[in-house]
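Hello again,

I reread your note about wanting to compare the complex against the isolated chains. To keep things tidy I'm splitting this into two emails, and this first one only covers the full assembly. Below are the input lines as submitted, including protein chains and any nucleic acid or small-molecule components. They are followed by the predicted structure of everything together. The single-chain runs will come separately.
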Amino acid sequence: MLITNAPKGTKDVLPSESYKWQYIEEKIRQICDLYNCNEVRVPTFEHTELFLRGVGDNTDIVNKEMYTFLDKAERSITLKPEGTAGVARCFVENSIFNNPMPIKMYYLNSPVFRYEQPQSGRYREHHQFGVEMFGSDEPTIDAEVISVAMDVFKKLGVGNLELNINSIGCSECRPKYNAALLEYIGSSIDKMCTSCQERYEKNPLRILDCKVPTCKEVVKNAPTTIEHLCEDCSEHFERLQKNLDSMGIAYKVNPQIVRGLDYYTKTVFEIITNSIGAQGTVCGGGRYNNLIEEIGGKPMPAAGFGMGMERLLMVMENDNVEIPEPKAVDLYIAATEDDAIIKSMEIARKLRAEGIKVEAPHMKKSLKAQMKYANKLNCRYVLMLWDEDIKNGEVLVKDMDENGEEKKIKIDEIVKEINI
RNA sequence: GUGGGUAUAGCUCAGUUGGUUAGAGCGCCAGGUUGUGGCCCUGGAGGCCGUGGGUUCGAAUCCCACUAUUCACCCCA
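Full-complex prediction:
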Protein backbone atom coordinates (compact mmCIF):
# COMPACT_ATOMS: atom_id res chain seq x y z
CA MET A 1 0.00 0.00 0.00
CA LEU A 2 2.66 2.41 1.08
CA ILE A 3 4.94 1.66 -1.84
CA THR A 4 2.28 2.59 -4.39
CA ASN A 5 1.53 5.89 -2.70
CA ALA A 6 3.61 8.94 -3.47
CA PRO A 7 4.92 10.55 -0.26
CA LYS A 8 2.64 13.08 1.37
CA GLY A 9 2.69 16.44 -0.32
CA THR A 10 4.26 15.25 -3.57
CA LYS A 11 2.65 15.06 -6.95
CA ASP A 12 3.25 13.18 -10.20
CA VAL A 13 3.25 15.03 -13.49
CA LEU A 14 1.74 12.44 -15.82
CA PRO A 15 2.79 11.86 -19.44
CA SER A 16 -0.61 13.15 -20.46
CA GLU A 17 -0.04 16.55 -18.84
CA SER A 18 3.70 17.17 -19.01
CA TYR A 19 3.24 19.19 -22.20
CA LYS A 20 1.76 21.95 -20.05
CA TRP A 21 4.96 22.20 -18.06
CA GLN A 22 7.04 22.12 -21.21
CA TYR A 23 4.98 24.93 -22.67
CA ILE A 24 5.53 27.12 -19.64
CA GLU A 25 9.22 26.30 -19.57
CA GLU A 26 9.61 27.25 -23.20
CA LYS A 27 7.94 30.64 -22.73
CA ILE A 28 9.99 31.35 -19.61
CA ARG A 29 13.23 30.59 -21.42
CA GLN A 30 12.27 32.95 -24.23
CA ILE A 31 11.57 35.79 -21.83
CA CYS A 32 14.77 35.25 -19.84
CA ASP A 33 16.83 35.25 -22.99
CA LEU A 34 15.43 38.67 -23.90
CA TYR A 35 16.75 39.95 -20.57
CA ASN A 36 20.19 38.49 -21.19
CA CYS A 37 19.52 36.17 -18.31
CA ASN A 38 21.11 32.72 -18.53
CA GLU A 39 20.15 29.48 -16.84
CA VAL A 40 22.07 28.24 -13.82
CA ARG A 41 21.65 24.72 -12.45
CA VAL A 42 22.62 24.09 -8.87
CA PRO A 43 22.30 21.02 -6.62
CA THR A 44 19.06 19.88 -5.05
CA PHE A 45 20.76 19.69 -1.67
CA GLU A 46 23.32 21.86 0.09
CA HIS A 47 25.13 21.95 3.41
CA THR A 48 22.61 22.77 6.11
CA GLU A 49 24.80 25.61 7.30
CA LEU A 50 24.17 27.52 4.07
CA PHE A 51 20.49 27.86 4.88
CA LEU A 52 21.06 28.58 8.55
CA ARG A 53 23.29 31.49 7.61
CA GLY A 54 21.58 32.53 4.41
CA VAL A 55 17.86 32.16 5.01
CA GLY A 56 18.15 32.82 8.72
CA ASP A 57 17.88 30.54 11.72
CA ASN A 58 14.86 32.21 13.25
CA THR A 59 12.66 31.82 10.18
CA ASP A 60 9.87 29.22 10.06
CA ILE A 61 11.41 27.71 6.96
CA VAL A 62 14.66 26.92 8.70
CA ASN A 63 13.20 26.25 12.12
CA LYS A 64 10.56 23.70 11.39
CA GLU A 65 10.27 22.99 7.69
CA MET A 66 13.62 21.75 6.45
CA TYR A 67 14.36 18.23 5.22
CA THR A 68 17.66 17.80 6.99
CA PHE A 69 19.65 14.59 7.41
CA LEU A 70 23.17 13.33 8.00
CA ASP A 71 24.89 11.68 5.06
CA LYS A 72 27.11 8.63 5.47
CA ALA A 73 30.08 10.81 6.40
CA GLU A 74 28.01 12.59 9.06
CA ARG A 75 27.70 15.80 7.10
CA SER A 76 24.51 17.69 7.72
CA ILE A 77 22.68 17.99 4.42
CA THR A 78 19.43 19.81 3.64
CA LEU A 79 17.15 19.56 0.64
CA LYS A 80 16.71 23.09 -0.74
CA PRO A 81 13.90 24.92 1.08
CA GLU A 82 14.21 27.88 -1.32
CA GLY A 83 16.19 28.76 -4.41
CA THR A 84 18.27 31.84 -3.70
CA ALA A 85 20.81 30.57 -1.16
CA GLY A 86 22.11 27.85 -3.48
CA VAL A 87 22.54 30.26 -6.36
CA ALA A 88 24.30 32.74 -4.07
CA ARG A 89 26.65 29.97 -2.98
CA CYS A 90 27.30 29.09 -6.60
CA PHE A 91 28.01 32.75 -7.33
CA VAL A 92 30.64 32.94 -4.60
CA GLU A 93 32.20 29.53 -5.12
CA ASN A 94 32.70 30.03 -8.85
CA SER A 95 33.92 33.63 -8.53
CA ILE A 96 31.21 34.77 -10.87
CA PHE A 97 31.79 38.26 -9.47
CA ASN A 98 34.80 38.48 -11.79
CA ASN A 99 32.42 38.82 -14.72
CA PRO A 100 31.23 42.20 -15.95
CA MET A 101 28.37 43.26 -13.70
CA PRO A 102 25.49 43.01 -13.42
CA ILE A 103 25.19 39.30 -13.99
CA LYS A 104 21.75 37.79 -14.36
CA MET A 105 20.75 34.18 -14.03
CA TYR A 106 17.64 32.07 -13.71
CA TYR A 107 16.73 28.60 -12.58
CA LEU A 108 13.79 26.64 -13.86
CA ASN A 109 11.79 23.77 -12.40
CA SER A 110 14.08 23.68 -9.44
CA PRO A 111 12.65 21.35 -6.77
CA VAL A 112 12.06 22.95 -3.39
CA PHE A 113 11.29 21.00 -0.21
CA ARG A 114 9.45 22.10 2.89
CA TYR A 115 7.96 19.91 5.57
CA GLU A 116 4.56 21.56 5.80
CA GLN A 117 0.95 20.45 5.98
CA PRO A 118 -0.14 20.17 2.34
CA GLN A 119 -3.17 22.06 1.09
CA SER A 120 -4.38 23.62 -2.12
CA GLY A 121 -1.36 25.21 -3.82
CA ARG A 122 1.06 23.95 -1.19
CA TYR A 123 3.25 20.90 -1.50
CA ARG A 124 6.16 19.38 0.38
CA GLU A 125 8.00 19.28 -2.89
CA HIS A 126 7.24 22.03 -5.34
CA HIS A 127 9.10 23.55 -8.24
CA GLN A 128 10.30 27.07 -8.72
CA PHE A 129 11.34 29.29 -11.53
CA GLY A 130 13.54 32.04 -10.15
CA VAL A 131 15.70 34.92 -11.28
CA GLU A 132 18.73 36.37 -9.49
CA MET A 133 20.62 39.49 -10.55
CA PHE A 134 23.94 40.29 -8.89
CA GLY A 135 26.17 43.32 -8.74
CA SER A 136 23.98 46.40 -8.83
CA ASP A 137 22.29 48.34 -6.10
CA GLU A 138 20.43 50.46 -8.63
CA PRO A 139 16.63 50.39 -8.38
CA THR A 140 16.56 49.68 -12.11
CA ILE A 141 17.60 46.14 -11.21
CA ASP A 142 14.70 45.81 -8.78
CA ALA A 143 12.44 47.00 -11.56
CA GLU A 144 14.07 44.66 -14.04
CA VAL A 145 13.54 41.68 -11.73
CA ILE A 146 9.88 42.56 -11.34
CA SER A 147 9.62 43.16 -15.06
CA VAL A 148 10.79 39.62 -15.85
CA ALA A 149 8.08 38.16 -13.63
CA MET A 150 5.38 40.39 -15.11
CA ASP A 151 6.49 39.56 -18.65
CA VAL A 152 6.24 35.86 -17.91
CA PHE A 153 2.68 36.26 -16.68
CA LYS A 154 1.82 38.36 -19.69
CA LYS A 155 3.40 35.92 -22.12
CA LEU A 156 1.45 33.07 -20.56
CA GLY A 157 -1.82 34.97 -20.71
CA VAL A 158 -2.34 35.26 -16.97
CA GLY A 159 -4.28 38.26 -15.70
CA ASN A 160 -5.94 39.04 -12.37
CA LEU A 161 -2.67 39.44 -10.53
CA GLU A 162 -1.72 42.13 -8.09
CA LEU A 163 1.85 43.30 -7.59
CA ASN A 164 2.49 44.40 -4.00
CA ILE A 165 5.72 46.20 -3.16
CA ASN A 166 7.31 47.45 0.00
CA SER A 167 10.69 48.48 1.34
CA ILE A 168 11.98 47.09 4.62
CA GLY A 169 15.16 49.13 4.76
CA CYS A 170 18.79 48.22 5.24
CA SER A 171 21.15 47.49 8.13
CA GLU A 172 21.26 51.20 8.84
CA CYS A 173 17.56 52.04 9.07
CA ARG A 174 16.11 48.67 10.08
CA PRO A 175 17.42 48.78 13.67
CA LYS A 176 15.92 52.25 14.07
CA TYR A 177 12.63 51.01 12.75
CA ASN A 178 12.71 47.96 15.02
CA ALA A 179 13.25 50.24 17.98
CA ALA A 180 10.31 52.42 16.94
CA LEU A 181 8.09 49.37 16.50
CA LEU A 182 9.04 47.92 19.88
CA GLU A 183 8.36 51.25 21.51
CA TYR A 184 4.98 51.45 19.82
CA ILE A 185 4.03 47.95 20.96
CA GLY A 186 5.31 48.57 24.45
CA SER A 187 3.48 46.70 27.15
CA SER A 188 0.89 45.37 24.68
CA ILE A 189 3.36 42.57 23.97
CA ASP A 190 1.96 40.76 26.98
CA LYS A 191 -1.36 40.13 25.30
CA MET A 192 0.18 39.01 22.00
CA CYS A 193 0.68 35.43 20.84
CA THR A 194 3.71 33.41 21.94
CA SER A 195 5.37 33.48 18.53
CA CYS A 196 5.05 37.27 18.47
CA GLN A 197 6.69 37.41 21.87
CA GLU A 198 9.54 35.43 20.38
CA ARG A 199 9.64 37.70 17.33
CA TYR A 200 9.77 40.66 19.70
CA GLU A 201 13.19 39.44 20.79
CA LYS A 202 14.59 38.06 17.55
CA ASN A 203 12.91 39.65 14.54
CA PRO A 204 10.41 42.39 15.42
CA LEU A 205 9.63 43.11 11.77
CA ARG A 206 7.78 39.86 11.41
CA ILE A 207 5.26 40.84 14.06
CA LEU A 208 3.64 42.84 11.27
CA ASP A 209 3.08 39.55 9.48
CA CYS A 210 1.14 37.89 12.28
CA LYS A 211 -2.41 36.83 11.45
CA VAL A 212 -3.67 36.38 15.02
CA PRO A 213 -6.53 38.87 15.45
CA THR A 214 -5.33 40.30 18.78
CA CYS A 215 -1.84 40.80 17.38
CA LYS A 216 -3.23 42.36 14.23
CA GLU A 217 -5.19 44.75 16.39
CA VAL A 218 -2.09 45.83 18.28
CA VAL A 219 -0.05 46.61 15.16
CA LYS A 220 -2.94 47.97 13.11
CA ASN A 221 -1.68 51.54 13.30
CA ALA A 222 1.93 50.71 13.97
CA PRO A 223 4.63 52.73 12.25
CA THR A 224 5.62 51.35 8.84
CA THR A 225 9.08 50.57 7.61
CA ILE A 226 8.60 53.04 4.80
CA GLU A 227 8.24 55.90 7.27
CA HIS A 228 11.56 55.02 8.85
CA LEU A 229 13.72 54.43 5.78
CA CYS A 230 17.10 56.12 5.73
CA GLU A 231 17.73 58.60 2.95
CA ASP A 232 19.39 56.05 0.71
CA CYS A 233 16.64 53.44 1.11
CA SER A 234 13.93 56.03 0.77
CA GLU A 235 15.34 57.35 -2.48
CA HIS A 236 15.85 53.82 -3.73
CA PHE A 237 12.20 52.99 -3.10
CA GLU A 238 11.00 56.18 -4.76
CA ARG A 239 13.11 55.59 -7.82
CA LEU A 240 11.87 52.03 -8.05
CA GLN A 241 8.32 53.35 -8.17
CA LYS A 242 9.25 55.86 -10.85
CA ASN A 243 10.76 53.02 -12.86
CA LEU A 244 7.66 50.89 -12.53
CA ASP A 245 5.46 53.84 -13.43
CA SER A 246 7.41 54.60 -16.55
CA MET A 247 7.43 50.92 -17.55
CA GLY A 248 3.68 50.77 -17.21
CA ILE A 249 3.77 48.14 -14.46
CA ALA A 250 0.88 48.58 -12.05
CA TYR A 251 1.61 48.01 -8.37
CA LYS A 252 0.34 48.67 -4.91
CA VAL A 253 2.53 49.84 -2.04
CA ASN A 254 1.71 47.47 0.79
CA PRO A 255 3.53 48.09 4.08
CA GLN A 256 2.32 44.70 5.35
CA ILE A 257 4.61 42.78 3.01
CA VAL A 258 7.67 41.81 5.04
CA ARG A 259 8.43 38.23 3.86
CA GLY A 260 9.55 35.30 5.92
CA LEU A 261 13.16 35.10 4.84
CA ASP A 262 15.80 37.07 6.68
CA TYR A 263 18.02 38.01 3.78
CA TYR A 264 15.84 40.72 2.29
CA THR A 265 16.84 44.40 2.35
CA LYS A 266 15.15 47.40 0.81
CA THR A 267 12.70 46.15 -1.84
CA VAL A 268 10.36 43.25 -1.17
CA PHE A 269 7.45 42.26 -3.38
CA GLU A 270 4.76 39.64 -3.88
CA ILE A 271 2.59 38.92 -6.86
CA ILE A 272 -0.74 37.67 -5.60
CA THR A 273 -3.87 36.11 -7.02
CA ASN A 274 -7.11 35.36 -5.25
CA SER A 275 -8.20 32.74 -7.76
CA ILE A 276 -6.46 29.62 -6.44
CA GLY A 277 -7.45 29.44 -2.78
CA ALA A 278 -5.71 30.60 0.33
CA GLN A 279 -2.17 30.17 -0.98
CA GLY A 280 -2.32 33.06 -3.40
CA THR A 281 1.29 34.19 -3.65
CA VAL A 282 2.47 33.08 -7.06
CA CYS A 283 5.71 34.98 -7.01
CA GLY A 284 7.75 36.56 -4.22
CA GLY A 285 11.09 38.26 -4.07
CA GLY A 286 13.11 41.35 -3.42
CA ARG A 287 16.56 42.71 -2.85
CA TYR A 288 19.10 40.92 -0.66
CA ASN A 289 22.18 43.07 -0.38
CA ASN A 290 23.62 41.30 2.66
CA LEU A 291 23.24 37.67 1.65
CA ILE A 292 26.47 37.21 -0.29
CA GLU A 293 28.52 38.69 2.51
CA GLU A 294 26.55 36.72 5.07
CA ILE A 295 27.57 33.41 3.47
CA GLY A 296 31.22 34.45 3.20
CA GLY A 297 31.58 36.36 -0.07
CA LYS A 298 32.63 39.93 -0.73
CA PRO A 299 29.77 42.38 -0.18
CA MET A 300 27.57 42.24 -3.25
CA PRO A 301 24.17 43.78 -3.91
CA ALA A 302 21.59 41.49 -5.52
CA ALA A 303 17.89 41.05 -6.16
CA GLY A 304 15.66 38.25 -7.35
CA PHE A 305 12.43 36.31 -7.03
CA GLY A 306 10.99 32.82 -6.86
CA MET A 307 7.87 31.74 -8.70
CA GLY A 308 5.93 28.58 -7.90
CA MET A 309 5.38 26.50 -11.03
CA GLU A 310 2.49 24.52 -9.56
CA ARG A 311 0.71 27.69 -8.52
CA LEU A 312 1.44 29.28 -11.88
CA LEU A 313 -0.19 26.30 -13.57
CA MET A 314 -3.15 26.54 -11.21
CA VAL A 315 -3.66 30.19 -12.07
CA MET A 316 -3.46 29.40 -15.77
CA GLU A 317 -6.04 26.65 -15.46
CA ASN A 318 -8.25 28.91 -13.42
CA ASP A 319 -7.98 31.58 -16.11
CA ASN A 320 -8.73 28.96 -18.78
CA VAL A 321 -5.51 29.74 -20.60
CA GLU A 322 -5.27 27.57 -23.71
CA ILE A 323 -2.12 25.47 -23.75
CA PRO A 324 -1.42 23.90 -27.13
CA GLU A 325 -1.58 20.13 -26.99
CA PRO A 326 1.19 18.01 -28.43
CA LYS A 327 0.94 17.03 -32.07
CA ALA A 328 -0.98 13.83 -32.72
CA VAL A 329 0.66 10.79 -34.29
CA ASP A 330 1.07 11.36 -38.02
CA LEU A 331 0.90 7.79 -39.10
CA TYR A 332 0.08 4.38 -37.70
CA ILE A 333 1.29 1.19 -39.33
CA ALA A 334 -1.22 -1.64 -39.12
CA ALA A 335 -0.04 -5.20 -39.62
CA THR A 336 -1.22 -8.63 -38.53
CA GLU A 337 1.07 -11.05 -40.38
CA ASP A 338 4.49 -11.88 -38.96
CA ASP A 339 6.57 -10.70 -41.91
CA ALA A 340 4.53 -7.51 -42.20
CA ILE A 341 5.05 -6.74 -38.52
CA ILE A 342 8.79 -7.03 -38.96
CA LYS A 343 8.60 -4.82 -42.04
CA SER A 344 6.54 -2.28 -40.08
CA MET A 345 9.42 -1.65 -37.70
CA GLU A 346 11.76 -1.05 -40.61
CA ILE A 347 9.37 1.39 -42.25
CA ALA A 348 8.62 3.14 -38.95
CA ARG A 349 12.28 3.81 -38.37
CA LYS A 350 12.81 5.20 -41.86
CA LEU A 351 9.79 7.49 -41.59
CA ARG A 352 10.88 8.76 -38.18
CA ALA A 353 14.24 9.62 -39.71
CA GLU A 354 12.23 11.84 -42.07
CA GLY A 355 10.64 13.61 -39.12
CA ILE A 356 7.32 11.80 -39.23
CA LYS A 357 5.69 10.82 -35.94
CA VAL A 358 4.99 7.12 -36.31
CA GLU A 359 3.39 4.43 -34.17
CA ALA A 360 3.99 0.78 -35.06
CA PRO A 361 1.87 -2.31 -34.23
CA HIS A 362 3.00 -3.77 -30.91
CA MET A 363 -0.13 -5.49 -29.63
CA LYS A 364 -0.89 -8.39 -32.03
CA LYS A 365 -4.49 -7.31 -32.52
CA SER A 366 -6.97 -7.77 -35.32
CA LEU A 367 -6.96 -5.21 -38.09
CA LYS A 368 -10.27 -3.87 -36.85
CA ALA A 369 -8.88 -3.35 -33.37
CA GLN A 370 -5.82 -1.68 -34.83
CA MET A 371 -7.98 0.71 -36.84
CA LYS A 372 -9.86 1.63 -33.68
CA TYR A 373 -6.57 2.23 -31.96
CA ALA A 374 -5.36 4.42 -34.83
CA ASN A 375 -8.56 6.38 -34.59
CA LYS A 376 -8.05 6.97 -30.89
CA LEU A 377 -4.54 8.22 -31.58
CA ASN A 378 -6.24 10.72 -33.85
CA CYS A 379 -3.59 10.04 -36.46
CA ARG A 380 -3.74 11.32 -39.98
CA TYR A 381 -2.74 8.20 -41.92
CA VAL A 382 -2.74 4.45 -41.51
CA LEU A 383 -0.46 2.23 -43.53
CA MET A 384 -1.88 -1.26 -43.97
CA LEU A 385 0.94 -3.66 -44.56
CA TRP A 386 0.31 -7.07 -46.08
CA ASP A 387 2.85 -9.75 -46.86
CA GLU A 388 1.51 -10.00 -50.39
CA ASP A 389 1.95 -6.29 -51.12
CA ILE A 390 5.41 -6.20 -49.58
CA LYS A 391 6.59 -8.62 -52.27
CA ASN A 392 5.72 -5.96 -54.85
CA GLY A 393 7.23 -3.19 -52.76
CA GLU A 394 3.77 -1.75 -52.16
CA VAL A 395 1.61 -0.70 -49.23
CA LEU A 396 -1.99 0.43 -48.79
CA VAL A 397 -2.31 3.90 -47.27
CA LYS A 398 -5.51 5.22 -45.79
CA ASP A 399 -6.34 8.83 -45.04
CA MET A 400 -8.13 8.92 -41.68
CA ASP A 401 -10.28 11.95 -42.43
CA GLU A 402 -14.04 11.54 -42.78
CA ASN A 403 -13.72 10.26 -46.36
CA GLY A 404 -11.23 7.57 -45.46
CA GLU A 405 -9.72 7.41 -48.94
CA GLU A 406 -7.30 4.56 -49.66
CA LYS A 407 -4.67 3.94 -52.30
CA LYS A 408 -1.84 1.57 -52.98
CA ILE A 409 1.58 3.20 -53.17
CA LYS A 410 5.23 2.21 -53.42
CA ILE A 411 6.88 1.68 -50.05
CA ASP A 412 9.82 3.78 -51.22
CA GLU A 413 7.53 6.69 -51.97
CA ILE A 414 5.52 6.95 -48.76
CA VAL A 415 6.98 10.31 -47.81
CA LYS A 416 6.20 11.70 -51.24
CA GLU A 417 2.65 10.37 -51.29
CA ILE A 418 1.46 11.57 -47.90
CA ASN A 419 0.94 15.16 -46.91
CA ILE A 420 2.63 15.86 -43.58
C1' G B 1 1.75 21.26 14.99
C1' U B 2 -4.03 22.52 15.18
C1' G B 3 -9.10 22.20 13.20
C1' G B 4 -13.22 20.65 9.47
C1' G B 5 -14.69 17.45 5.11
C1' U B 6 -14.03 12.85 2.43
C1' A B 7 -12.59 7.45 1.70
C1' U B 8 -17.29 2.07 -2.93
C1' A B 9 -14.21 -0.49 -10.18
C1' G B 10 -8.61 2.73 -13.82
C1' C B 11 -11.83 7.72 -13.64
C1' U B 12 -16.61 10.38 -12.01
C1' C B 13 -20.02 8.83 -8.71
C1' A B 14 -25.06 5.89 -7.06
C1' G B 15 -26.12 2.52 -3.08
C1' U B 16 -32.90 4.13 0.01
C1' U B 17 -34.91 3.42 7.52
C1' G B 18 -28.54 -1.92 8.56
C1' G B 19 -31.25 -7.41 4.98
C1' U B 20 -29.49 -12.36 -0.31
C1' U B 21 -24.54 -13.07 -5.59
C1' A B 22 -22.44 -4.29 -4.53
C1' G B 23 -24.42 -0.88 -9.28
C1' A B 24 -24.27 3.09 -13.43
C1' G B 25 -21.69 6.20 -16.91
C1' C B 26 -16.92 6.82 -19.03
C1' G B 27 -12.41 4.12 -20.01
C1' C B 28 -10.16 -0.79 -21.15
C1' C B 29 -10.67 -5.78 -23.83
C1' A B 30 -13.46 -8.90 -27.34
C1' G B 31 -17.37 -9.41 -30.87
C1' G B 32 -21.46 -7.43 -34.40
C1' U B 33 -19.42 -13.25 -41.00
C1' U B 34 -16.03 -12.57 -46.44
C1' G B 35 -8.24 -8.95 -43.21
C1' U B 36 -10.57 -1.42 -42.36
C1' G B 37 -11.63 3.45 -37.68
C1' G B 38 -15.42 7.25 -36.06
C1' C B 39 -21.94 6.54 -34.64
C1' C B 40 -24.68 2.44 -32.74
C1' C B 41 -25.48 -2.58 -30.48
C1' U B 42 -23.83 -7.06 -27.58
C1' G B 43 -20.59 -9.37 -24.25
C1' G B 44 -16.21 -9.51 -20.90
C1' A B 45 -12.45 -8.31 -17.41
C1' G B 46 -11.94 -5.30 -13.17
C1' G B 47 -14.00 -3.83 -6.10
C1' C B 48 -11.35 -7.52 1.13
C1' C B 49 -16.85 -0.94 -0.13
C1' G B 50 -9.17 2.74 3.02
C1' U B 51 -7.18 -0.53 7.52
C1' G B 52 -8.22 -2.66 12.31
C1' G B 53 -11.60 -3.31 16.16
C1' G B 54 -16.78 -3.03 18.16
C1' U B 55 -22.50 -3.24 18.15
C1' U B 56 -25.92 -6.87 15.66
C1' C B 57 -28.86 -12.99 13.79
C1' G B 58 -26.85 -9.84 9.80
C1' A B 59 -22.59 -3.87 8.42
C1' A B 60 -20.54 -0.52 2.28
C1' U B 61 -24.47 1.42 5.67
C1' C B 62 -24.22 2.45 13.01
C1' C B 63 -19.87 3.40 16.88
C1' C B 64 -14.42 3.85 18.02
C1' A B 65 -9.33 4.03 16.60
C1' C B 66 -5.73 4.40 12.89
C1' U B 67 -4.15 5.65 7.92
C1' A B 68 -4.63 8.28 3.52
C1' U B 69 -6.58 12.35 1.11
C1' U B 70 -8.60 17.24 0.87
C1' C B 71 -9.64 22.26 2.61
C1' A B 72 -8.32 25.86 6.25
C1' C B 73 -5.01 27.98 10.26
C1' C B 74 0.33 28.81 10.48
C1' C B 75 3.94 29.87 6.83
C1' C B 76 5.13 30.58 1.90
C1' A B 77 5.98 29.66 -4.13
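For quick reference: The longest strand of chain A covers residues 103-113.

B.
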